[in-house]
Amino acid sequence: MKYKLISFFLLLFVLNSCQNNNQKRQAENKKAAEKKELIFSNINKGWVFYDTPINTTSEASVASWTELRLFLAELAQKPKKTIGAFQKKSSEISKKAMALSNNIPYNFSKPQIKSRISVLITKVRLLDLFIHLDNIPDKKVVLLIAEINKELVSLQRQMDKIVEKSKIPVEEGESDLLKMMDTTRAIPNIPIDKNLPRVE
């Protein structure tokens, strides 16, 4: 009799604890869903890229530089509905950003442009990394979007500076002076060995 009574209370206790676990699990699931909804809302509001050229130089380069055109077109398409859509879009943006450094037009193949492209690629890859985390830091994602926009503006302004400098006419003799100042063309300074025979 004692064993039956003890086993009965034990069974009630187990059933009651299972019911409490279900309620806790449902409450945790509800909190997680609300948190995901908040993260999605914040990222959706902050997902605004500068996808149009800001000056005539960048407009002209978009027409001839296929990789830049595809990158800006990818930025223009805003994902909708789920975090998964944002994750896919960030992966696509990352691929297009990586392609920017492959085919830089000759007139823009300068260290200033290459460094800005490298910084832009780094920011885009960071965005891709953060948005694929299990616990997405939505504030960092929005901040990275603003930084990517800033780097895009910097890249386009540098392109404009290069085009403006190329329009300045070269004065007579300036090209010769630049050649003389070029240290890669200079005669190397080889130390003279005093033991070698000399012709006098």
- What would you call the structural class? mainly alpha
The coarse overall form would be: elongated
Order of helices and strands: HHHHHHH
Radius of gyration: 31 Å
The helix count comes to 7
Beta content comes to under 5%
Number of strands: 0
Helix content: over 70%
Task: Please describe the biggest sheet, giving its number of strands, its sense, and whether it closes into a barrel.
Answer: none
For the residues shown, what is the average pLDDT?
Answer: 77
| Unreliable stretches covering 5 or more consecutive residues | none
Amino- and carboxy-terminal Cα gap: 127 Å
Can you tell me about this structure?
- The protein is mostly helical.
- The protein has a domain at 47-167.
- The protein has seven helices and no strands.
- The chain has helices at 2-46, 56-64, 66-76, 83-100, 111-131, 138-167, 174-181.
- The longest helix has 45 residues, at 2-46.
- The relative contact order is 0.10.
- The mean pLDDT is 77.
Overview in brief:
The protein has helices at residues 2-46, 56-64, 66-76, 83-100, 111-131, 138-167, 174-181.
Features:
200 residues; mainly alpha; 7 helices; 0% strand
Secondary structure layout plus pairing:
Blueprint: H1 2-46, H2 56-64, H3 66-76, H4 83-100, H5 111-131, H6 138-167, H7 174-181
Helix pairs in contact: 1-6, 2-3, 3-4, 4-5, 5-6
